[in-house]
Structures are given as structure tokens and as C-alpha cells.
Amino acid sequence: MPFLGQDWRSPGQSWVKTEEGWKKTSTDDKNNNISVQSFCKAEEEEEECFNKENLLLSLGYDMAAKKRKKDLMNNNTKVPYFNREKWIYVHKGSTKERHGYCTLGEAFNRLDFCSAIKDTRRFNYVVRLLELIAKSQLPSLSGVAQKNYMNILERVVQKVLTDQQNVRPIKELLQSLYLSLCGLVQDMGKSVLVGNINTWFHRMENIMQWQQQLDNIQINRPTSTGMSLTELPASLQLNIMQRLTDGRDLVSLGQVGPELGALAEDRLLWKRLCQYHFTDRQIRKRLIASDKGLLEWKRMYFKLCRCYPRREQYSDTLHFCSHCHILFWKDTNHPCTANNPESCTMALSPQDFINLFNF
After folding, report:
1. What is the pTM of this model?
2. Range 156-163, long-range pairs (CB < 8 A, 24+ positions)
3. Which end of the chain is more exposed for a tag (fewer CB within 10 A), N or C?
4. Residue in 128, 116, 127 with CA at minimum distance from that of residue 310
5. Residue 154: CB atoms within 10 Å
6. Which residues contact 215 (CB under 8 A, 6 or more apart)?
């Protein structure tokens, strides 16, 4: 076996590049040059190490600052993540021009839900959409979309506390979200929710605090400037009751006074409610007759509500154009090149909006 020295690949002389050109040097000359140059390079290496240490320290401070800022954004739900796009393109496949898919979280982030909350025509639509997402679609949202969801929910609660309207739907929304989170937090190890579990515990505490605030809300009666509802003729009172589409509102109105309570038991009112929300086939399956052989429409209504979903009606909804695949609000124009865009446009219920991205 041959002897292997420190430089066994090229023992003896070696070529060194200098300012005058390449020169051949021996091992002794090389050692002398190293001893002369080592002192010159020592200060440069020391200064370079010092600069590297300062750079690492500065990077460490920057990373710590970014981490504190990120933790603040995770814990502070008041940081807004709202976009103001009136319409978005829903792509369901990858092409040369566009890669990837449009997800539910992306649509939730990009659409103008911030302004939709302030619009009374779209408020109930957004609340219903938040409720459906809370029940089944929350784990499918990205981390930014989940944070955006909580920010929008906080704005909805603050609007209800300020306006003192639509209290019951928001209570039901918070209850559904809290029950969903109780089950999802237990599966945090399965990557169900994005983020630290302590962040979600903090959000659940906020939900409980919002529920307490809604329970303690006291609706201020407006100053009377004219006739009240109880002072109107019975025919007008009955006409007003016929405009209600929720049986719970009808029951609450009947608890105001004995006269309104008697009108709220009118069989024709409950019959119209049943026929408005449910089909004839569904009604025939849930018939309830009294001892006198008359149909009890009030009991049938609440029984049908437990068995079937009620009809949903909104003043303004999201629309989808099947020609150019644009998702937009009803009163917003979209860049459709079809000859007759209205024939390609369809209104989406909150459930249809979620189903649009389940492909």
C-alpha cells in the first residue's frame, strides 16, 4: 500500500497563480508564503466573522419581530383580511393560462363580503353562508380564510349589537359554530384546523363572550310618533302577520297581547306558511288532524321544519354565469361576452354557492 501524505494527489511542486502569471513553487516556498500571508488574512477573517455575527444577530431580531407580529395577527381577530372584488373567475381545472383550482376559501377571501354585511339586502345571505360553513366546511378553508371567517363573524356580531336587529339568527349561528369547534378542536392532531390550538381556544372564548352579549341585549323601544300595532284594526294586523315568513316570529308577535295572540292562532296564516315553505307531497306525509277532523296547520308547520329545510328567500344573492364562469353579486356587472348573458346566469343559494366548489 503506497504512503499517503497530506497532499498525496499532487506531491512535490505545484502551480500558483500570481499577478505576474502562473509560477511553479515547492512545498517549502509555499509554507513561507503562507506564513507571510497568514497575518494579512487574520484581520480580514476576524472582521468578516464579526460582520457575520452581526448579520446573524440582525436576522435573529428580524425573525423574532416577524414571529411576534404573526402571533399578534393570530390572536388579534380585529386584523382585517377583506378584499373588495365584485366578481371572481371560478376555474375548475388547470390550463396553460391558469394553474390550480378556485377553492371555497379563495372565493370567501376575494369576494366583497365586508360590504355585503353592511347591505341589508345581503345580510341574511351572508349569515346563512357563515352558518353552512360553520357546520361542515370550516376545515376545508385555508388558514387565511379561517381567520377571515372569524373577522367577518366579529363584524356581524358588532353590527347586531349596534342595530339591535337579527339577534336570533346570529345566536343560532354562534351556537352552531361553537358546537362544531368543540368537535374539531379534539381532532387538532389530524390537521383539521389550521393554527395553534390555543388560538382556537381563544376564539371559542370570544364566541362565548359574544353569546353572553347577545343574551344581555336590551332592545330600546323607539319613541312613539303615531299609532302602534295594537291600535290598528284587526284586518290590518292580520295583513301584517301574513307578511311574516318565519313561524317563530308569528309566535313571538302573538305574545305581545291577547288580541294579537288570538290572531296569531289563525289557521289560514299557518296554512299559508306551510304551503310557502314546503311542497304538497311533503305536507301530505306529515298530516296532523285534530279531534274535530280539522288539520292543525300550526303543529304541522313545526313538524315539517324538523323534517325538511324551509324555503330560503333573499333580496340579493350571488349569481354565476355559466358562459364565462364568473361569480358575482346580483347588481354587479361582469365581463361576459355572450349575446344574451341573462340566459346564462343563475342565482345561487348559500348551499348552491358551497356546492359550486365541491368538484
Report:
1. 0.68
2. 156/117, 156/126, 156/127, 156/130, 157/210, 157/213, 157/214, 159/117, 159/118, 159/123, 160/214, 161/213, 161/214, 161/217
3. N
4. 128
5. 17
6. 171
Instruction: Please report, for the chain, how many H helices and E strands are present, in that order.
Output: 14, 6
Distance in angstroms between the alpha carbons of the first and the last residue of the chain: 69
For helices 143-163 and 167-185, the axis angle rounded to 10 degrees is 150
Find out whether 325 and 91 touch, Cβ atoms under 8 Å. yes
Q: Which three cell numbers stand for residue 300?
A: 304541522
Phi, psi values for residue 80, rounded to 5°: -80, 145
Residue 161 CA to residue 155 CA, distance in Å, equals: 10
Q: State how far the Cα of 261 lies from the Cα of 264, in Å rounded to an integer.
A: 5
Q: Which element (helix H / strand E) includes 18? A: none
What is the reported pLDDT for 36?
Answer: 42
